[in-house]
Amino acid sequence: MSRLPRWVGGVGAGLTRLAERLEGQKPEEQGTAPPPAPGSDSAFGPEPVRAAAPAPTPEPTHEPVSEPEAAAGPQAEHVPPPPDYAPAVSALPDPVATVPWGVRVAAEVGWRLLILAGTVWVLMRVISAVQLVVLAFTAALLITALLQPTVAMLKRHGVPRGLATAMTFISGFIVMGLVGWFVVWQVTENLDDLSNKVQHGINDLKQWLLDSPFHVTEDQINNIADNLSQAIGTNTKDITSAGIEGVQVIIEVLTGILLAMFSTLFLLYDGPKIWEWLLKLFPAAAREGVAGAGPRAWATLTAYVRGTVIVALIDAIFIGVGLFFLDVPLAVPLAVFIFLFAFIPLVGAVVSGALAVVVALVTRDVFTATMVLVVVLSVQQIEGHVLQPFILGRAVRVHPLAVVLSVAAGSLVAGIGGAVVAVPLAAVTNTVVGYLRAHAKEKALQAAVPVKRPGPEPSVPAGGAGAPPGETRAD
């Protein structure tokens, strides 16, 4: 009976140790060792302290961790993916990608065209505001292109530049002034005779209408004459204002002539310096192309002016000789008008020829007017098919449609002056654009293919090695 309490005590102590061991295994699984209970004794003596086993190091994973998950840490909740039966929601496409390609191209072209149209409109408004200055300077450019070869010839023969410029300028404007004075003198000298012949021609035309098969009566002709007289009488105020405007036009013409004269003088004397100053206004990247296009544009303008003067002079001489032999009054002034109107392409030849035919019809008879028409048409056909291609050649290459459109646009913007300068402006623009396009292609080819620079070849080391460091081999 004395062994039973001892056995019961040993079983109790064993159960106590088993419980402690079970409690110590939980911290070991979590990687920490439980602190030993101080003073813990058992029936078998104090429990020895055991070192906690090191926790197994987890293998590194290469799965990317998003920034929200990294910021949230290990306490962030895991968001499960949507189930398979959930409907797929596609992302909204880019709005630019939804626009068709053709519409995008049309929009890009459209707003650029709007900018260009606005620029042209503003430029036309500026030109209209200073129309007198622009026309005077353009006329000075044309006169300079006509007189500059004479200055160059005198300089080649040893004449100083100032003296050559003065001689050419004075002689050129004296010749033009004499031509204008001669025309005015011829018209004023023959004005009385011309008015009498015009009155006689009107009476002949009236008699011809009465005898014609159109059944025109004398009362109808008188009614037309009375209506014209009444219209003139009722519009006397308008005619007076038109006369005042005519005086203003004369003042503007004189001002334009003075501006053209001074501009021509300075262009003949300081033309190269003015061109160098204009080059400095362009950006440095575009200066090379503009410097190459300028001389070509000037050569085109010079060829156009000289060719037009020669063609107009030939027309005036041949038509004037025809008018003289047909005994048409004012043959010489009409020839001068034909020379001046030849500078207006298309329209000038028609107007001057029609004026000669009308004068022949009024002052002579129908047969003479018909012969004048034949002479004018023959000379103009020779001009269009022989003189212009031979004299102008390929220096001025402008399509006839471009000529018609440029003359129409120039006449709408600046009247007769605009029609005169429209064609040379179109020719110069064509030359400049063609050269700039070729220059751009040449620069692109030079950038694509390196050009071998002249100079000694760099020495190549033995073994086929390349150029030494810091040097570039020209291949």
Automatic annotation (TrEMBL):
<feature type="transmembrane region" description="Helical">
    <location>
        <begin position="249"/>
        <end position="269"/>
    </location>
</feature>
<comment type="similarity">
    <text>Belongs to the autoinducer-2 exporter (AI-2E) (TC 2.A.86) family.</text>
</comment>
<feature type="compositionally biased region" description="Basic and acidic residues">
    <location>
        <begin position="18"/>
        <end position="29"/>
    </location>
</feature>
<dbReference type="InterPro" id="IPR002549">
    <property type="entry name" value="AI-2E-like"/>
</dbReference>
<protein>
    <submittedName>
        <fullName>AI-2E family transporter</fullName>
    </submittedName>
</protein>
<feature type="transmembrane region" description="Helical">
    <location>
        <begin position="332"/>
        <end position="359"/>
    </location>
</feature>
<keyword id="KW-1003">Cell membrane</keyword>
<feature type="region of interest" description="Disordered">
    <location>
        <begin position="447"/>
        <end position="475"/>
    </location>
</feature>
<keyword id="KW-1133">Transmembrane helix</keyword>
<feature type="transmembrane region" description="Helical">
    <location>
        <begin position="303"/>
        <end position="326"/>
    </location>
</feature>
<keyword id="KW-0813">Transport</keyword>
<keyword id="KW-0472">Membrane</keyword>
<keyword id="KW-0812">Transmembrane</keyword>
<feature type="region of interest" description="Disordered">
    <location>
        <begin position="1"/>
        <end position="87"/>
    </location>
</feature>
<feature type="transmembrane region" description="Helical">
    <location>
        <begin position="402"/>
        <end position="428"/>
    </location>
</feature>
<dbReference type="Pfam" id="PF01594">
    <property type="entry name" value="AI-2E_transport"/>
</dbReference>
<feature type="transmembrane region" description="Helical">
    <location>
        <begin position="166"/>
        <end position="187"/>
    </location>
</feature>
